[in-house]
């Protein structure tokens, strides 16, 4: 009788998105997570009909659920004594804001989906943040159409190009102010570039990587970090040099830096150490791997500063 009841439960299990659906239908944990990740990656974020954010949120919440199976059999399917807590509760019907779920994460996604509002916030913490970012947010709000509004969706090319122009303007201010701070405190331009400017230009990449990683798009997070540096080297550096050459009758740009050759060699060594570290951690992101990355950056920073200050002499000078 028990075996027939188990067989009946296995046959009636419906592996589809529904409320209180038994997680035993997807019996293999690795296969379950792989299917969810594959489904998230195959969603079309550019299609309005696909409702990418809603579906990705639903699948992501299902992937995070823990199946507390008791007494698994050989094929990984639990018996009929599964507690009610082992059932996956997924809110399929989206609320009014179009975001699945009602937890804190859903509220954060709701704030991201809403158009920008300059209304005065309620809590003191938000009020302080409001005043700090107002000099940046206000010109963006005045000049760029908010594509999160239905009436402004068709103006997305203007918003895209305008955002790039504002990034260029803010980057110019950041470099200018960093240069002035360096001169005030007698810090060389090379050290400011290796520390303050390097961190300032990487923070946007950090934020975007964290956002897409939380949505389950780990490949996009890693490729963003690699692609941004490639773009900086192949476009960010030669484009202003090209403009300088055109304005100055193709006069060559003189670059002088202490230990430039050794710094380039050090970059290749750092790349090698990064690959070795990731391979040593079995190609998985963990806290230990993060600690290794911090240590490698600290070593690179110290050696680069010593090369620039001529504490360590590079045998090859450029």
TrEMBL record:
The chain crosses the membrane at residues 127-144, 156-179, 191-213, 225-246, 258-281, 288-307. GO terms for cellular component: plasma membrane. Residues 157-305 form the Sodium/calcium exchanger membrane region domain. Residues 104-114 have a biased composition (Acidic residues). One of its GO terms (molecular function) is calcium, potassium:sodium antiporter activity. GO terms for biological process: intracellular calcium ion homeostasis; long-term synaptic depression; long-term synaptic potentiation. Residues 1-20, 63-118 are annotated as: Disordered. It catalyses: Ca(2+)(out) + K(+)(out) + 4 Na(+)(in) = Ca(2+)(in) + K(+)(in) + 4 Na(+)(out). The keyword Calcium applies. InterPro entries: K/Na/Ca-exchanger, NaCa_Exmemb, NCX_ion-bd_dom_sf. It is found in: Membrane. Keywords: Antiport, Calcium, Calcium transport, Ion transport, Membrane, Transmembrane, Transmembrane helix, Transport. Its main location: membrane. The keyword ATP-binding does not apply. Pfam families: Na_Ca_ex (PF01699). It is a multi-pass membrane protein. It comes from the Eukaryota. Belongs to the Ca(2+):cation antiporter (CaCA) (TC 2.A.19) family. SLC24A subfamily. NCBIfam families: calcium/sodium antiporter. This is Sodium/calcium exchanger membrane region domain-containing protein. It comes from Gambusia affinis.
């Amino acid at each position: 009788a028990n075996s027939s009841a188990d067989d009946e439960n296995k046959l009636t299990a419906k592996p589809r998105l529904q409320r209180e659906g038994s997680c035993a239908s997807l019996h293999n944990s690795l296969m379950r997570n792989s299917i969810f990740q594959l489904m998230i990656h195959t969603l079309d974020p550019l299609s309005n009909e696909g409702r990418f954010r809603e579906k990705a949120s639903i699948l992501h919440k299902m992937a995070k659920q823990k199946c507390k199976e008791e007494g698994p059999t050989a094929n990984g399917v639990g018996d009929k004594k599964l507690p009610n807590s082992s059932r996956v509760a997924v809110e399929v019907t989206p609320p009014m804001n179009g975001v699945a779920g009602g937890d804190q994460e859903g509220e954060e996604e709701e704030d991201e989906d809403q158009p920008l509002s300059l209304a005065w916030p309620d809590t003191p913490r938000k009020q302080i943040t409001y005043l700090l970012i107002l000099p940046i947010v206000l010109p963006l709000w005045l000049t760029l159409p908010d594509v999160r509004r239905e009436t402004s969706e068709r103006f997305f090319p203007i918003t895209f190009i305008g955002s790039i122009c504002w990034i260029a303007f803010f980057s110019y201010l950041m470099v200018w102010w960093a240069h002035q701070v360096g001169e005030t405190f007698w810090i060389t331009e090379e050290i400011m570039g290796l520390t303050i400017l390097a961190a300032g230009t990487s923070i946007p990449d950090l934020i975007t990587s964290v956002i897409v990683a939380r949505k389950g798009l780990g490949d996009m997070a890693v490729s963003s970090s690699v692609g941004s540096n490639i773009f900086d080297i192949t476009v960010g550096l030669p484009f202003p040099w090209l403009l300088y050459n055109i304005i100055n009758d193709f006069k060559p740009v003189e670059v002088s830096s202490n230990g430039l050759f050794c710094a380039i060699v050090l970059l290749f060594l750092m790349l090698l150490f990064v690959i070795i570290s990731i391979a040593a951690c079995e190609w998985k992101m963990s806290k230990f791997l993060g600690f290794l990355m911090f240590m490698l950056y600290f070593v690179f920073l110290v050696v680069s500063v010593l090369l620039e200050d001529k504490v360590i002499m590079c045998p090859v000078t450029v």
